[in-house]
Amino acid sequence: MAVCGTCGAEMQQEAKFCKACGTGRGSEGAGNSDKKARVMAGTKKSPKAAVIVAAAAVLVVAGWFVYNSAVKARSVERPMMMKAERGGNSSVSYQPVTAEKGDVRIALGGLQGSAASYFVYNAGGKEIKFFVLRALDGTVRAALDACQSCYHAKLGYRQSGDTLVCNNCGMGFKSTDVGHVTGGCSPIPLQNSQDGTTLIVKTKDLEEGVKYF
Q1: Parallel, antiparallel or unpaired: strands 117-123 and 95-97
Q2: Are 146 and 213 in contact (CB under 8 A)?
Q3: pTM of whole model > 0.85?
Q4: What is the pLDDT of residues 115-149, one digit of tens each?
């Protein structure tokens, strides 16, 4: 008795084909050769798959470093964030001021160190609030007690050390930024002039800010 070279089944000596798998007698090695070729082909593909996996891992790591660096950069550039206080400036005392010949005058001698002094001007029944302070560099700054982003909340700013903090969103600005940094949540600069003893604000400049109150 002969044995099929493909499946191992017994074959009649004179049979040309295996009854079990149908393989011809003359092609016993063909199946094994094909199988070997397929195995070898699979073996050749493995290094390529490994390279793809490694490249993907490198891209993931590189992407993480880029993202992490961007987050750190934004955190450095972003203004200081502090806890927002929703009660508004309830603890702030606004000093009423009046105008004389179109000018509102604030005596610089009345400023208390670096503490902000808050004022309110009545323009036809509409209260316009602003503050004046001596910044860390010794200059006197003036700004509306409102910003372009959060004015609708009507909560104004509070002072925390050398920082003016928006009571609505908690964003903080250094005293040296007041009057210079504009837009967003920064205090709206209030145009003024100074003669060494007095800060002078034109009523027209105050009244331009009425829309923020």
Answers
A1: parallel
A2: yes
A3: no
A4: 999 999 999 999 999 999 999 999 999 999 999 99
